[in-house]
Amino acid sequence: MKRELTKEDKELAAAGYEHLHEEKGKKVGAEANVQSVDISEHRLAFDELGDALGTVVDGKEPEHSRGLTAEEAKTRLAQDGPNILTPPKKKSAFRKYMDCLLTMFNILLIIAGILEYILLGIDYKDNFQNTYLGGILIAVAFLNAFIEFYQLQKSEAILASFLAMIPPSCRVVRDGTLTSIPAANLVKGDIVLLRTGDKTPADLVIFGSTDLKVDNSNLTGESEPQERRPMPDGSRLSPVEAENLVFNSTLVVNGEGWGVVARTGDHTFIGQIAALTSGETDNKSPLSVEIARFVMMVSTIAIVFAVVFFVVGITTVYKGKASQTVTFAVSILVAFVPEGLPSVVTLLLSIAAKRMAAQNVLVKDLQGVETLVTYLVSQLTLLATDKTGTLTRNQMTVTNLWSGQHMYTAFQSNNDEAETESFSFDKPGMSELVSNASLNSRIKFDRTDVPFGERTILGDATETGLIRFAGRYLVDFDDYVKRHPKVFEVPFNSTNKWALVIVNKTHAEGPLTLYIKGAPERVLAKCSTYLKDGKAEPVTEDFKAAYDSAYNYMASRGHRVIACAQLLLPKAHYPADYAFSRTDVNYPSSDYCFTGLISLEDPPKHGVREAIGTLRLAGIKVMMVTGDHPKTAEAIARKINLILGDTRESLSVKTGRPIEEIYEDEVSAVVVHGDDIDGLQGWQWDQIFSKDEIVFARTSPKHKLEIVKHAQALGHIVGVTGDGVNDSPALKKADLGIAMNISGSDVSKEAANMILLDDNFASTVKGVAEGRQIFVNLKRSIQYTISHSTPEVIPQLLYVVVPIPLPLSAILILVIDLGFELFVALSFAWDKPETADGLMRMPPRKPVSDSSIKLIKKRALRRTKTLRRDPETQEIIRPSRWSLFWGHCKAPFTRDFWEDKMESTEAESLVDKKLLSYAYLEAGVIEMLGGLVAYFVVFWKAGFSPSDLRRAQAASSNGTTYFLKSSPPFVNYRGQTLDAATQVDALGQAQSIVYLSVFIIQCFNVFAVKAKFKFPFGKNAVANYYNFLGILAGACLGVFIVYTPPLHVVFGGSYHLSPLYWLIPIAFGCMLLVWASVRVLLMRKGLRQARVKDIKGLMMCEFVFENVNLRLSFTVPTMRTMSMRSRH
């Protein structure tokens, strides 16, 4: 039965979307400075402008401008300098270093070091050993800061080299030839062509344009695009208001224009506004926030433990001995704080940046590397991708033409139906279609002094394909276009979805002919007749049926379909000098004559099908958002693994049932028309996003933006890929905007925060796989690093509570944290995947499910009901700061607060409960037991039983201190007398074995932390030879410290320690591996259930990519094998 939505259901579904409809404040630019800008060239008439800039400005035929000569341009470049802006002022190196130094961990270390020196000042003799400890603590803080600072500087250099790989370019006329040059080489007087999607390379005075509009919001705060046009007599307005001036760094969002460079570099509008060249921002990336939260938590616990046990120690066992208890408190701080963690994270991310670039994935900013790790890599749940140029090759080829009666093929194809005829220019209606394709176009050639076939066409892919086709059948293309010049033009835009031109082409009724081409449904709606055997016939139902059949035939093959129409303008109403106008629609806008359909094929890029299949198997929902017709979009989607199941329409055709009788839960795919988007309600958006396979067709830039917003409102982490101007709003709004480097417009690159250098959609898969592995490696490194906290902290507590002689000094703890730990923790950066496809068959770390959406909506509904509204206007009344503060204060005392906190989620954070449990309670406890067992065995062999140790240490409260060179003899449980030298050596051996125990068991832990899908043995576990280099470096350091007598003054220890004692921690290390294996068995069922299930019908071949550090191979069943499997 079909379930009806109740009022409560609709209310809950609408919750979470309200904020999308709230009024957004307009961005305010630097209005205070714009009026004082020194630019005056826009005031000059064309003749004066040419003289002032040393060039020739042709306002009548801009495209025939000769421009500067190469020699003149070279001279001016040497004179004026390159066209680049002085970089904004950045933080000084000292300030950056101080930011690295003043972190919580480093502050704790510095305070602890200062405390040790205070004790030294109070009692120098008893606290002499603290001379080294205090200095080392402070030095460690400064060293930590230096490592982080050095890596930041190095990362900035890497980023600069990455950005140099995609220098901005522009189209300029030099020596009469239109060419593309780096924007930095632009000089005053250059003639520049601006087209939709370009970023203006300098300040230009416009002397020719067609519907040119620019986005000035980043300069002036104007939210709407501003029209720019030539003014032959100049403009008397201020630069910011002048309609004939476009500014450096503004974005061309519509039309095209010809401009002459008036200002370059720092002399441009943006270069003169100091407010727009402010310094860096201090925004924190999500990963930084997560790490900072963990650091704060650990630091708080460390401080609380240190204070509590300081009080316990000074009031019990060490009563009155402040120096000993302070040193103990410092040891607790040092033991809890993983001092090397910030450096490890910084170094790992630096390595990540290089590896991402090696995969042709360029992250545009430093925080982007971290965002990539936390979003694209591990959190991305939905990827919205454009079709043309992103999934397809952006190489349009005309395939079929329909004249209203017959279907023609432009080239021989086995896929055409039998009645499809071969194209001929002489067939009825074909000459009109060729005329429309050639005259209703805005393409440019790089040069016109070579044959047509040797030219490079500058224009969008659709028009390029049409011109290539028309050029084959016109004897002299240039002459044909010249004989029929444009009189009036309405360029294509994403709102109208058609382009119109009126040309000087004589016919029986007059001198002017109108041509229109565009989306078939939009063009047909403007037509009242169609062309049949050279005559206009009224549009009938029979014609519409034939039109629908031809349209579906073309679109269902995945081809882009363009409709063409014409109107022969009568001389009586439209003489040759008629003044057409766009502003008041003073041109014919209806009653056109339909001339036919043209389809163009843009085949999918190689590897796209496999890439989409891989992403879907990784739990990422991939949806297409395109401006093409729904049939075209669906056909392409079915070719590339994006749609495998039925839509309501396709199921209706299969079963013969009316669409109205097919329920939503019967289908897994949906194709949404852009015209329906504006009217969608909350529950309908929920219904769409609940589908596995989604295509949005005939969408505008506004629609794409709305789709991203509604997906984000459901908790999706949204990635958007695109290459055009119409993609830029969505790219900017998305959590991760991914632009194409080669085919991408400047506008899309500006909006995105990641660029695919090779334009290969499959690079997205490489980024996901590489990034997920980076996240896993980072998590392993943290898990490994903090595992030694328990074996460091518990012995310190036993020193106070039992008490026993200090098992591990603060200096040795520092050696652990910043010695071998640092080497090994860094080696995880080169870890390879545990299994061939394990990571790419697991869901994102914060998956969106029905339960997570319901939780978001419940919270949103709760917020909505608590908002105060104006009783008349129903506008939301914003709470005061005091109300917000009071709300935060009382929140912990409400039921809702704790319900939200205790709500279980499927999300996986960088430092989660499982990681903390393993590090502190599992591996940490095993390491602690191994260290203590070895500690007591060494003391036992030296003649001290556990009760002896407690008795000797407790004696310090009576003023007798053992285990010093000046200590009195000690009588053990056997009655033996042990002198001071024996005591000191026994303590040195015991502390040495505890130190070596932590190191040895941590060596086993290197492989234990990797065990998630497989046991910690075998090729994959030991494939990273950097692990062994780290272990070797740590072993050399440990042996050097323990067995080098001169170092015992600083670190303690004893070279008498027998290597046989190493067998004890080795045994516990083996125990850790056994526990890791048991853990794999315990988690196996949960991981198997969490694994993304096979997708029925997915067509995949082996998809392999590799680099030095990572090789992944995904092989999944084809449609045939999946169908066979589904029968059982």
Automatic annotation (TrEMBL):
<dbReference type="InterPro" id="IPR004014">
    <property type="entry name" value="ATPase_P-typ_cation-transptr_N"/>
</dbReference>
<dbReference type="InterPro" id="IPR050510">
    <property type="entry name" value="Cation_transp_ATPase_P-type"/>
</dbReference>
<feature type="transmembrane region" description="Helical">
    <location>
        <begin position="918"/>
        <end position="940"/>
    </location>
</feature>
<dbReference type="InterPro" id="IPR008250">
    <property type="entry name" value="ATPase_P-typ_transduc_dom_A_sf"/>
</dbReference>
<dbReference type="GO" id="GO:0030007">
    <property type="term" value="P:intracellular potassium ion homeostasis"/>
</dbReference>
<feature type="transmembrane region" description="Helical">
    <location>
        <begin position="100"/>
        <end position="120"/>
    </location>
</feature>
<dbReference type="InterPro" id="IPR018303">
    <property type="entry name" value="ATPase_P-typ_P_site"/>
</dbReference>
<feature type="transmembrane region" description="Helical">
    <location>
        <begin position="1063"/>
        <end position="1082"/>
    </location>
</feature>
<dbReference type="GO" id="GO:0036376">
    <property type="term" value="P:sodium ion export across plasma membrane"/>
</dbReference>
<keyword id="KW-1133">Transmembrane helix</keyword>
<dbReference type="InterPro" id="IPR044492">
    <property type="entry name" value="P_typ_ATPase_HD_dom"/>
</dbReference>
<dbReference type="Pfam" id="PF13246">
    <property type="entry name" value="Cation_ATPase"/>
</dbReference>
<feature type="transmembrane region" description="Helical">
    <location>
        <begin position="326"/>
        <end position="349"/>
    </location>
</feature>
<feature type="transmembrane region" description="Helical">
    <location>
        <begin position="1025"/>
        <end position="1043"/>
    </location>
</feature>
<dbReference type="InterPro" id="IPR023214">
    <property type="entry name" value="HAD_sf"/>
</dbReference>
<dbReference type="Pfam" id="PF00690">
    <property type="entry name" value="Cation_ATPase_N"/>
</dbReference>
<feature type="region of interest" description="Disordered">
    <location>
        <begin position="216"/>
        <end position="236"/>
    </location>
</feature>
<feature type="transmembrane region" description="Helical">
    <location>
        <begin position="294"/>
        <end position="314"/>
    </location>
</feature>
<dbReference type="InterPro" id="IPR023298">
    <property type="entry name" value="ATPase_P-typ_TM_dom_sf"/>
</dbReference>
<keyword id="KW-0812">Transmembrane</keyword>
<dbReference type="Pfam" id="PF00122">
    <property type="entry name" value="E1-E2_ATPase"/>
</dbReference>
<keyword id="KW-0067">ATP-binding</keyword>
<keyword id="KW-0547">Nucleotide-binding</keyword>
<dbReference type="GO" id="GO:1990573">
    <property type="term" value="P:potassium ion import across plasma membrane"/>
</dbReference>
<dbReference type="GO" id="GO:0005524">
    <property type="term" value="F:ATP binding"/>
</dbReference>
<dbReference type="GO" id="GO:0006883">
    <property type="term" value="P:intracellular sodium ion homeostasis"/>
</dbReference>
<dbReference type="InterPro" id="IPR023299">
    <property type="entry name" value="ATPase_P-typ_cyto_dom_N"/>
</dbReference>
<protein>
    <submittedName>
        <fullName>Aminophospholipid-transporting P-type ATPase</fullName>
    </submittedName>
</protein>
<keyword id="KW-1003">Cell membrane</keyword>
<feature type="domain" description="Cation-transporting P-type ATPase N-terminal">
    <location>
        <begin position="40"/>
        <end position="121"/>
    </location>
</feature>
<dbReference type="GO" id="GO:0005391">
    <property type="term" value="F:P-type sodium:potassium-exchanging transporter activity"/>
</dbReference>
<dbReference type="GO" id="GO:0016887">
    <property type="term" value="F:ATP hydrolysis activity"/>
</dbReference>
<dbReference type="InterPro" id="IPR059000">
    <property type="entry name" value="ATPase_P-type_domA"/>
</dbReference>
<keyword id="KW-1278">Translocase</keyword>
<keyword id="KW-0472">Membrane</keyword>
<feature type="transmembrane region" description="Helical">
    <location>
        <begin position="132"/>
        <end position="150"/>
    </location>
</feature>
<dbReference type="InterPro" id="IPR001757">
    <property type="entry name" value="P_typ_ATPase"/>
</dbReference>
<dbReference type="GO" id="GO:0005886">
    <property type="term" value="C:plasma membrane"/>
</dbReference>
<dbReference type="GO" id="GO:1902600">
    <property type="term" value="P:proton transmembrane transport"/>
</dbReference>
<dbReference type="InterPro" id="IPR036412">
    <property type="entry name" value="HAD-like_sf"/>
</dbReference>
<feature type="transmembrane region" description="Helical">
    <location>
        <begin position="993"/>
        <end position="1013"/>
    </location>
</feature>
<dbReference type="Pfam" id="PF00689">
    <property type="entry name" value="Cation_ATPase_C"/>
</dbReference>
